[in-house]
Amino acid sequence: MKARLVHRDDVLKIVDLLRQKGYEVVAPFFGRGRDTRFDNVTDENRDEIQIHLPNPYHPPKRFVLLQIERLLRIHQREGQIEIEPTYREPKRAIFGIRSCDIAGIWHLDRFFLGREFRDIYYEKRRENLFLVNVVCSDPERDIGAECFCVCSDTGPAARDHFDLQLLDLNDGEFMVVAGSPAGEAMFADPIFRKGTSVHSAKRRAVLESARRSFKPSTTSWFSAAIRHVSAGKVAEQTWEEIGNRCLECGGCSYVCPACTCFTVTDRRVGPDEVERVRIWDACALGGFTRMAGGHNPRKAVHDRRNRRFFRKLSHYFIQRELSIACVGCGRCAAVCHGDVGMPSVVEMIRRSAAEMETHEHAQL
Amino acid sequence: MNTPSSDNIYLPKIAVLDRSVDEIAEVKTFYWHFDDPAEQAAFKKFRPGQFAQVSLFGAGEFPASLPPSPTEEETFFTIRTVGSCTAALHSLEPGDKFGVRGPYGNGFPMEDYYGKNLVFVAGGIGLIPLRSCIIYALAHRDKYEKIQIYYGAKSPKDLMYLQNLREWEEGAGVEFNLTVDRAEATWKGHVGVVGSLFKKPGVRVPVENTVAFVCGPPIMFRFVIKDLQALGFHDGQIVSTMERYMKCGVGKCGHCCIGMAYVCVDGPVFTYEQIKKLGEDI
Ligand SMILES: Cc1cc2nc3c(=O)[nH]c(=O)nc-3n(C[C@H](O)[C@H](O)[C@H](O)COP(=O)(O)OP(=O)(O)OC[C@H]3O[C@@H](n4cnc5c(N)ncnc54)[C@H](O)[C@@H]3O)c2cc1C
Ligand code: SF4
Ligand code: SF4
Ligand code: FES
User: Is residue B268 part of a domain?
Assistant: First the structure.
């Protein structure tokens, strides 16, 4: 992988370069309070782009998998039906995307493009997407209390699946790594300067200290939880306990960069015209599996919660998708009213599995 | 960007309704064909047990089994009206257009069953997906050993595919057994749940080298499984189709996912052995 240096004052010039190349660029900004968000970069807000900030709750996933997306426009006139697929192929760049969200997009790639059926709507949005990853290196501003990418092995520095990766060396320089030919092509611009082995050593030191600034947390048991869920070593009672705490708001799915489920619905937009749209959906919601006539095979809330965690943590699905559906961003923990986000669930699974271990109960 | 339509997995193709025929209360059979003959030819390569996604634009899209056998000429669906999409289909007149895409799902591996006895057990509209296999098996009669059909409906007026029932009753090479849950005194046939047919005098269900196809409402399914197990069937010999809420039919929307399977792509056909491992109710 090729790397270059960029001076702190030149970092946002990467955004300018991308805009000159015709990319619509989205980047992170501060909102009010803790609130941060990805937004379109304009001439007016360009200087307010943030490099170090808490990762926005609303994941950048929405730029490749729209929360509401029209799939088809259908014209019905005099007994004739015309179906028009409505594709959009934006040339978009996401500047400042965090490593967990890079892994999230990789999971979506595997899921929507990696199997027998390819999703053309996703493909067209993904094709021209340019990803500028920023490594979370600042323990105060970047790394949140809920973050556990070190446990899910997706961060703080993404290994691949980005075009460019920026790391603040904390000395006025950023080290930029190219992860794709498109990324490397950017290095033609004079803002990118050659560095030395001193800079590489510095990069490793910054990364090392970033990794150490994660607080010890329940998610240290993440890989153990994967093993227990895969082996069915979680008591029914634990799923019930998790289910009892879930308020069925669906929030965990809506903030998750690796959730993929959607529903499809038709809506009338004119006397002769109907649109077919897809909308993000969540397995927490009661209607997710309820069939016509009212039969619902997953009636109990805990059956539905069980589903979320099995889909995310079982070896079976990790292998099937060749990537994992939890990338350690911690967002679900931040939004859940019932404290059954991933970190708490990992802890509950650990306790449940320990209960089932006979050696835990060894007698004197 | 002219993408060939086949590349869009969500894009329905235009179908034309030829005619609809009443089966039983609230259930009709809809004969249709694709507007484009090339689509029709491609679609006709479906396997028994597969399904299609049917679009009624403005109402939505729903999954429907393919009751015809690929060895038959016409393509059709048999649909009970229960909600918005199915009601919209029921309101169509011959010549009206709608959308179809598919075929989807794994279907029954009918070639793997060559040389075996086939036992079909259908309850109510569970006969819809099994009709395809039965017609297919009878069209390849020399490939199979014994073929038996056990069909149960609520009452005599709930019997579907009457023409086929008559053929099976009279036809050579197939043992056909019919029952209804309740009937007026004028009914000459058997009365009782479908599993009671296994104990009817003269009936002998082959167990060795047999595949049992079971489709019907959840309660019927559970009882028939018990009956078959009592006869000596093991769970891998019993095949069925799972029904789950579906939105896409192609493994993307996540709605039909149970245990380790997406019913729309890994199913809807599973052996009972597999169904038990999925860990959810039928
Ligand atoms: C593989 C498969 C094959 C089927 N074959 C047949 C058949 O041959 N004949 C028949 O009459 N019925 C069949 N069904 C059931 C049929 O799909 C539902 O009755 C139908 O979806 C109800 O749609 P609706 O719009 O009328 O009802 P609504 O309650 O308005 O449903 C709205 C939407 O919910 C989803 N949905 C609701 N119930 C079901 C359900 N039971 N299964 C799947 N999705 C559902 C669909 O996307 C549907 O469009 C099959 C179901 C599956 C999964
Ligand atoms: S955020 Fe919490 S309460 Fe809401 S659906 Fe998810 S688990 Fe349930
Ligand atoms: S499950 Fe929670 S922690 Fe894992 S990726 Fe989704 S939102 Fe982030
Ligand atoms: S119906 Fe959408 S995943 Fe199976």
Answer: no
Instruction: Please check whether residues B44 and B130 belong to one and the same domain.
Output: no
CB contact under 8 A, B99 and A290: no
Same domain, B147 and B172: yes
Supply the ipTM of this predicted assembly: 0.90
Residue B261 lies in a domain: no
What tens digit of pLDDT does each residue of B199-224 get?
Answer: 988 899 999 999 999 999 999 999 99
Q: What is the mean pLDDT of each run of 10 residues along chain A (364 residues)?
A: 94 97 97 89 96 94 95 93 94 97 96 91 95 94 90 92 96 96 96 94 94 82 90 88 91 96 95 96 83 71 76 90 92 94 93 78 73
Residue A19 and residue A91 in contact, taking contact as beta carbons nearer than 8 Å? no
Domain of residue B31 covers 8-104
Q: Are B29 and B48 in the same domain?
A: yes
CA of A256 to the centre of ligand 2 (A): 11
Q: Look at residue B3 in the predicted model and tell me its pLDDT.
A: 39
Same domain, B65 and B80: yes
Q: What is the pTM of this model?
A: 0.93
Q: Are residues B61 and B84 in the same domain?
A: yes
Rounded Cα distance between A276 and A257, Å, is: 24
B184 contact partners, CB below 8 Å, separation of at least 6:
B156
Pocket perturbation via mutation, ligand 4, pick of B9, B250, B278 by most ligand atoms within 8 A of CB = B250
CATH number at residue B31: 2.40.30.10
- The answer to whether residue B179 sits within a structural domain is yes
Count structural domains, chain B. 2
Partner A, chain B 99-138, Cβ-Cβ below 8 Å:
99
Q: What is the pLDDT of residues B7-50, one digit of tens each?
A: 899 999 999 999 999 999 999 999 999 999 999 999 999 999 99
pLDDT in tens, B65-119: 999 999 999 999 999 999 999 999 999 999 999 999 999 999 999 999 999 999 9
Q: What percent of chain B has pLDDT over 70?
A: 97
State whether the beta carbon of A49 lies less than 6 angstroms from ligand 2: no
pLDDT at position A48, please?
Answer: 96
CATH code: domain of residue B159? 3.40.50.80
Q: Which residue in the set A83, A111, A316 is minimally distant from B11, CB to CB?
A: A83
B15 and B100 both lie in a single domain? yes
- Of B104, B121, B140, at which residue does a domain stop? B104
Q: Does B97 touch chain A (CB under 8 A)?
A: yes
Residues B119 and B208 in one domain: yes
- Among the three residues B162, B191, B216, which one is the final residue of a domain in this structure? B216
Are B57 and A281 within 8 A, CB to CB? Answer: no
Query: In this structure, are B114 and B212 located in the same domain?
Result: yes
